[in-house]
């Protein structure tokens, strides 16, 4: 009798944010840097790896009350909007960057005002003692979801024990806000050039998971903050769910050829027991 196939674990919705700044402050023609954090070794997902800030969606990220408090919401579908909201929330929780503005204004909340908002809300959000709805209503803010540009969409392979359905967004970091890891989920942080992160991983100085590496490669092609964001706006996002193929006794991890990445496969180590 054939045993029934075991169903893969469900992929949990998640979001990731690539916060960019020019390497020379105020010079948009200079090469870009991206903010990255090192996951705590006690975190189940990607422990010890250098990653972009992000995390799982929360129910409140899709609260219908937020639609009236999201920039450009009239042009964003509900399903996508909640991922953008989650990205703004995660960036605030994890590194203290808040992509939000007072309603009716174009400028992002300045660092001087952000200090008080952070003291009142950052820890509460991280501990699930408050939601993003509570924050924006109490502070009368609009979430700058219009500044979050879709960058990539990756779904963890079906063979993985923990799976995520992750949207990546790119955004320019506010010039006067200071990003800093939270000290709990993340134990270190760095502003780093995309190619520099790739090179340090190749030299064994950093650990990068596959999706992070491929998106750093894509980011490196943009060159500048303006170039990377313009390229993201022009590019069609193709969902990437890697799969494994075996050839001549070797295993290779593949990604779709139309997703826009260089290097469509990489060799995997032999399966356990071989």
Q: Give the termini separation.
A: 26 Å
CATH class: Alpha Beta
**Helix percentage range:** 25-40%
- SSE string, helices as H and strands as E: EEEEHEHHEEEEHHHEEEE
Number of domain units = 1
**What is the number of helices?**
6
CATH topology: Nucleoside Triphosphate Pyrophosphohydrolase
Low-confidence stretches: none
Topology, element by element:
Layout lengths: L11 E11 L9 E8 L10 E2 L2 E3 L21 H18 L4 E3 L8 H16 L5 H8 L1 E3 L5 E7 L8 E9 L13 E7 L1 H9 L7 H13 L2 H10 L4 E2 L2 E5 L2 E5 L10 E4 L6
Parallel strand pairs: 1-8, 7-10
Antiparallel strand pairs: 1-2, 1-4, 2-3, 2-9, 5-6, 7-8, 11-12, 12-13
Helix pairs in contact: 1-2, 4-5, 5-6
In short, what is this structure?
The protein is an alpha+beta fold and 274 residues long.
Attribute tags:
274 residues; alpha+beta; Nucleoside Triphosphate Pyrophosphohydrolase; 3-stranded antiparallel β-sheet; 6 helices; 13 strands
Structure description:
This protein has one domain (12-241): Nucleoside Triphosphate Pyrophosphohydrolase, CATH 3.90.79.10. The protein is built from 6 helices and 13 strands. The protein has helices spanning 78-95, 111-126, 132-139, 194-202, 210-222, 225-234, and strands at 12-22, 32-39, 50-51, 54-56, 100-102, 141-143, 149-155, 164-172, 186-192, 239-240, 243-247, 250-254, 265-268. Strands 1, 2, 3, 4, 7, 8, 9 and 10 form an 8-stranded mixed beta sheet that branches. The radius of gyration is 19 Å and the shape is globular.
């Amino acid at each position: 009798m054939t045993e029934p196939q075991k169903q893969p674990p469900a992929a949990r919705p998640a979001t990731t944010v690539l916060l960019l700044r020019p390497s020379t402050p105020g010079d948009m023609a200079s090469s870009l840097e991206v903010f990255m954090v090192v996951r705590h070794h006690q975190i189940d997902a990607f422990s010890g790896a250098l990653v972009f800030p992000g995390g799982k969606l929360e129910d409140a990220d899709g609260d219908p009350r937020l639609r009236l408090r999201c920039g450009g919401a009239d042009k964003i579908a509900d399903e996508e909007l909640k991922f953008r909201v989650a990205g703004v929330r995660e960036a605030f929780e994890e590194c203290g960057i808040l992509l939000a503005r007072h309603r009716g204004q174009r400028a992002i909340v300045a660092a001087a005002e952000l200090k008080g908002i952070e003291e009142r809300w950052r820890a509460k959000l991280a501990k699930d003692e408050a939601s993003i709805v509570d924050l924006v209503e109490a502070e009368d803010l609009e979430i700058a979801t219009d500044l979050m540009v879709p960058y990539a969409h990756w779904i963890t392979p079906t063979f993985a024990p923990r799976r995520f359905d992750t949207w990546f967004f790119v955004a320019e970091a506010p010039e006067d806000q200071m990003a800093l890891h939270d000290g709990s989920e993340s134990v270190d942080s760095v502003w780093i050039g995309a190619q520099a992160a790739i090179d340090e991983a190749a030299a064994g100085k950093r650990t990068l998971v596959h999706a992070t590496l491929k998106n750093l490669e894509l980011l490196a092609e943009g060159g500048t903050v303006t170039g990377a964001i313009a390229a993201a706006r022009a590019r069609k996002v193709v969902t990437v769910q890697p799969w494994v193929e075996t050839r001549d006794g070797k295993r290779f991890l593949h990604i779709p050829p139309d997703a826009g990445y260089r290097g469509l496969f990489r060799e995997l180590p032999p399966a356990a027991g071989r």
